[in-house]
Amino acid sequence: MELDPRLKLTLPIEEIEPTALDQIEAALKFPFLKLLAIMPDIHTGYALPIGAVALLEDHVWPAAVGYDIGCGMCHVTTGMKRSELPDLEELFKHLSDVIPVGFHELKTPAKEVTPFYSASRFAALTDAVMYHAVRQLGTLGSGNHFIEIGGNKEDTVGITVHSGSRRSGWLVGDFYMRLTKGPVELRSKIGKAYLKDMKWCLQYALDNRLKMLQACLKALGLNPPPQEDIINETHNHAIVTSKGVLHRKGATPAQKGQLGIIPANMRDGVWITRGLGNKEFLCSASHGAGRRLSRTAAKQLISTSKLKEQMKGIVYPPFKNTALLDEAPDAYKKIDEVIARQDGILVDIIDHFAPLLVMKG
After folding, report:
1. Coil, strand, or helix at residue 240?
2. Where does Mn(2+) 2 bind (predicted)?
3. Which spans in 47-165 are helix H?
C-alpha cells in the first residue's frame, strides 16, 4: 500500500494485519480525513482499527468511537505498602461480592444515575439505555475489562479499573452506527444528536469506574483520595477541537504532561505514563498491548496449564474449560515492544505496577 501523507505509523506497515490495513485504506478514502495516526497496539476493529486516531474536518464518525463509548481507565496510587494488604484470596472474594462482573448486574437498581434522554428523540433508545444504566452502574463487564491491584518497585499499592459505559453505551453506539453507516456532518441533526448522547455515555463510564474504584478503596480501609490524585483516561471518544473532530478508538490521550495508563495483560501489569504532546500522532498513545490472537484462536491455541503457569503468584478468577483463555497473556502482543515504540516519542514511562490481584468477568 502506497503511504498516504495523512497516515502516521508507529510501527512498520508490514506488521499490520491485512484486515486492519483494509480498514485503514477505507478511512483514507474520505476527503475530509485530515490525519490518521496508528498506535503500536493496532488490531482489527469495527470500521476503523482499534489503536487508531482519526482527525476529521467537520464530520463525526460514530464507528470511529465504537460500541464501548467512554471505555477507559482510572488509577490511584495509594499510600499503602504491599505488606499492609489483607489476605488476597479473602479480598478477591469480598470484591467479587460487592462488584458484579461479566453479565451480572446490581440486585437493587442504582438511584444516582443521571437521567438519559436521547437527543435523537427515539424513545425506545432512551428507555433501553436507562433500563440498563440503573442496573449496571458500578459493574465491571467482561472481555478485556479488569480491576487490578498491584505493586510498584517501591512496594506501593496501586489500583487500576478498566471499564466503560456497559450496555447503555453499546446501545447508543449501535443505534448511531446503524443510522449513519459512516461519517456525518458535524452540524447535521444526527451529528449533533450523537455528540450529545456520547457525552452522557462518557460521564456514565467515568461514574461507573469511580464507583468500582471506591469499592476497592473501601475494601482496603482507605478513604477516597482527592480527585486530582486519580488518573482517568478515556480511550473511546470523539472531541470537537479547533482543528477538527478528533476520534480515538482504543488510544490513550497523551497531551503534554497528561498522565495516562497503558495495561499489558493479566500477568504483566500496567504502566503509568506522562504524555509528550506529539502532534504528529495526534497527542495519543496505545491503550494497551493489542491483541495478537482473536478470542476464538486464543481458546484453540492456548492451554489452561500454560495460563496457570503464567499466573502463578497472582490471585485471579477461577475458571472452567476455556474461560479466560481469550484473555491469557499469550493472546496479546509483547508489551515490551509496544512500549518501546512509544516511550520517549509519544509518552514517558513514569511507573509500573505488577499485578497481585486481577478481577475479570
Report:
1. strand
2. 162, 235
3. 88-98, 123-136
Q: Give the CATH number of domain 7-292+332-359.
A: 3.90.1860.10
Determine if residue 311 is labeled as part of a ligand binding site: no
Q: Is pTM, for the whole model, over 0.90?
A: yes
Expressed in percent and rounded to 5, the helix, strand and coil fractions of the chain are: 35, 25, 40
List b or e across 172-189, with b for residues whose CB sees 16 or more CB atoms inside 10 angstroms. bbebbbeebeebbebeee
Radius of gyration of the chain (CA): 20
pLDDT band at 272 (very low <50, low <70, confident <90, very high): very high
Residues with a catalytic annotation lie at 287
Rounded Cα distance, 70 and 65, in Å: 9
142-169 pLDDT, tens digit per residue, is: 989 999 999 999 999 999 999 999 999 9
Stretch 185-198: mean pLDDT: 97
Report whether 289 belongs to an annotated binding site.
yes
Letter for the amino acid at 43? H
**SS3 category, 285:** strand
321 is in an annotated binding site: no
Between CA 356 and CA 111, with CA 359 as vertex, the angle to 5 degrees is 130
The dihedral over CA atoms of 92, 97, 101, 107, expressed in degrees to the nearest 10, equals -170
| Orientation of helix 189-219 relative to helix 166-180, angle to 10° | 160
